[in-house]
Design goal:
Elements lengths: L5 E8 L4 E10 L3 E12 L7 E8 L6 H10 L20 E10 L2 E10 L9 H12 L9
Length: 145
């Protein structure tokens, strides 16, 4: 639940051991806010796993109003759960996303998967969301050594 006038949250698992949660919100008291939370474990050969828990403000490449317009153009309240994802049998990694959106009293949530890194030959509403996230936000990809 949130008292924000508008809230957008993306839960991101890109096939690594670090989960990410991006939250973008707007309300009348605090204005626009954008945060990134990262949590999980990093493994290094010969060392104990390192726990990662980070939370910080994150900058958009666009301004807040432009980003909100981009989100609105994706019509996220109309997107249904994905039912056409094809798993590749050669152990190709995939990304899992859960999108939450709230505007006034309306709330909607849906999960979807994409191949990672992005397969730009596929053009659908799910890859459009993934592309927007990758274009707007900068975050590190933590990979195992």
């Amino acid at each position: 639940s949130s008292n924000a006038d508008f809230a957008f949250r993306a839960w991101i698992n890109n096939g690594t051991s670090i989960e990410r949660v991006i939250t973008f919100s707007q309300d009348s008291l605090l204005g626009y806010q954008c945060r990134l939370v990262e949590f999980g474990f990093l493994s290094k050969k010969g060392f104990k796993d390192k726990r990662v828990v980070k939370e910080r403000e994150i900058n958009l490449k666009s301004d807040f109003k432009e980003f909100k317009q981009k989100i609105d153009s994706l019509k996220l309240f109309e997107i249904i759960n994905q039912n056409n994802f094809e798993y590749v049998l050669n152990h190709e990694p995939f990304s899992l996303y859960v999108i939450e959106i709230k505007e006034k009293d309306k709330y909607h949530q849906f999960p979807f998967k994409t191949h990672f890194p992005n397969d730009f030959t596929i053009k659908d509403e799910y890859t459009a969301i993934e592309n927007l996230l990758m274009e707007e936000f900068e975050f590190n990809f933590y990979l195992k050594d």
